[in-house]
Amino acid sequence: ITAKVFAEILDETPRGPLYALSNSGISPLIALLYGLFPLAFLNLLSYSFYRFECALRSAAVLGIVGAGGLGYQILLSLQSLRYEQLWTFFYALLILNGSVDATSAWLRHQLGCPQRLDLLAGKVRASAPTRLPYLWAVLGLIPCCFWYLHPDWSKLWSPRTQILWADLGKAAFPPSFSPDLLQQLIPLAGQTLAMSVLALVIAGLGGLLFAFAGSATLWLPGGVLTQGQATWGATLRNGLVLITARGLLLLFRAVPAPIWALMFLFILFPGVLPGALALGMHNLGIMGRLMAEVVENIDPPPLQALQAQGVPTSLVFLYGVLPLTLGRFVAYLLYRWEVCLRETVIVGFVGAGGLGRLLTEQLSSFDYRGIVTTVLTLFVLTLGVDLTSAQARRLLR
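RESULT FIELD:
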């Protein structure tokens, strides 16, 4: 995922300095290092911070399959019906995600990084690092994390690992194309696609609502929706709306989609609907927060012009705020569609249907040839959604 977005950032970075160095006889590698990377540096760094936030949530997902951490403890608490422990771990996830989000936003602001939504929507600008001491402080944390985990790298090339890789390769190839498997793949691929679309609709509509409720520039004193509301009561009410919306968005995105799916499955029983609800709720938290950032970064002059003419607050919102934000909302929705499709497999592991459920059965029966075929099906499906989404986003630019 990171390589794909990095490639798009480099593709859309201005090439003037690169061509100037190349035409001067500089080697291609040196021209790339001095002519292209400095201009794309902050864009690459901004997206790296975003992937760090995503990796934190993914770490909890990996815990569900036995990799340890908070995710594993949440699974144990849910299986043993210890709901008081479950909510304690949820609070821990909230604090951890909230701390990382706040720190990441502060660092990106200090370094002058662009908005993440601009990068995902393909709106890349040339940039240069501004405050390098902050960057060196962040980079200094990386060896501390490796020291804390003490990973045993020797396992990667040990004789046992090589034997297991060889055995796995022999068991997985050639892929299985049996009629029974193909008959399952087509309807399950349709379920996976439908689940991703339903999750996208839930996340899009919910994100749209929470984006405006969680935008500081709309609700704080002097905002678009607080004109003429100078009383303490109105300020307190608006502050409560903002805090509640931000808190709910943090809760939705801090709890990974498979954990939401486990909770919905407990209430609704196995099927596609719990998976779609889980994906929709998790992505609602992510999209709502990013959409709120878009609203907070609206260019003020158009809104101020409407307010100066005495336009009511509701019409300022309809004719000023919405037109300036909807295009970027749709662009990010299309990007999240790709993410939702991939995540359907993860919620399928816990019984939410689609290709993920089939993969779980194949893993349980050690049907590695069938696994390769299912993964190839998912690859084709993801490629189709990726191309469709990229084309649509290109048309919106």
